[in-house]
UniProtKB/TrEMBL annotation:
It holds the Pfam family BLUF. It comes from the Bacteria. GO terms for molecular function: blue light photoreceptor activity; FAD binding. This is Sensors of blue-light using FAD. SMART domains: BLUF. Residues 1-92 form the BLUF domain.
């Protein structure tokens, strides 16, 4: 398994409702792919951790990187793991202002 943490900047057209929709869609897709993780959004930036099978996570990262709703995509951390940090979260939107919930848990 692998865990990847990335950071990006939302386009000005992205609203909190858009982020909620993204999260709900991710819960379904991630469940199908066996991916877990967390997403932090502070009104301007995204910070997301994804974990699961390497091929599945890398494939999803490629899709997210190409999403035009954000820019400045940068992987902050990538590591092989033996257990998940977010085993019960197919995707969870964490506190809007507190990226440390995601970053410090890595």
């Amino acid at each position: 398994m692998i865990r990847i943490l990335y950071f990006s900047t939302a386009r000005p057209t992205v609203s909190k409702d858009t982020v909620k929709q993204i999260t709900e869609q991710a819960k379904v897709k991630n469940h199908e792919l066996g991916i877990t993780g967390a997403l932090a959004y502070n009104g301007r930036n995204f910070c997301q951790a994804l974990e699961g099978g390497e091929a599945e996570v890398r494939g999803l990262i490629d899709e997210i990187r190409a999403d035009e709703r954000h820019s400045g995509f940068k992987i902050l951390d990538e590591k092989h793991i033996t257990e998940r940090h977010f085993p019960d979260w197919t995707m969870e939107l964490v506190s809007e202002l507190d990226f440390s919930v995601v970053i410090n848990s890595m």
